[in-house]
Design a protein that fits this description.
Layout lengths: L4 E5 L10 H8 L4 E6 L5 E2 L5 E2 L3 E2 L10 E4 L12 H12 L4 E4 L1 H8 L13 H5 L14 E4 L3 E4 L4 H12 L4 H13 L4 H6 L1
Parallel strand pairs: 1-2, 1-6, 2-5, 6-7, 7-9
Antiparallel strand pairs: 3-4, 8-9
Amino acid sequence: MTGKTVHLAVYDTFADWETGHTTAHLARNGYTVRTVAAGTEPVTTMGGMRVLPDLTLDALRPEDSALLILTGADLWDSGDTLAPFAAKARAFLAAGVPVAAICGATAGLAREGLLDDRAHTSAVSFYLDATGYGGGERYVDTDAVTDGGLLVTAGPTEPVAFAREVFALLGVYEPKKLDAWYRLFHDSDVSAFEVLEG
């Protein structure tokens, strides 16, 4: 396994801002971020950026990855176009490789049945209830949740908390620095900068 490679799923309308903190700080800490799409054609983000994928979803193997990141996108709620990404998440979790999902991607995982038996969160509980999933009792009303060291979920307004959970899961920062990183980027606590630089 290439333990320093993280895969970011990309598809049309993906919410590019939701993983900016996550991917930028992983890259700054020795990780390679590779984009993965259904095909080889460029995709266009919600913000209008065009992204050329590094590899296709069919070619992605859990053993070649440290983490699969799934972002929100309009397409999660408008049909089954992104269902193969949720199926790939199932393969990752079955292989013991972590998955991190934010915003609409949580609904994709819910439809795939991956949240039925795992603690999780999303935008609001009734958003996931609309998927017909069976995990309502495991829903946690908080900014981000990590279950079993394998699955991170967060709502669309929590990109910094999402990044915090990913960094904790991968051991990117020791706990004191992770807390400082979160306080700096979430709370604009400039005193945390000294801890990060120390």
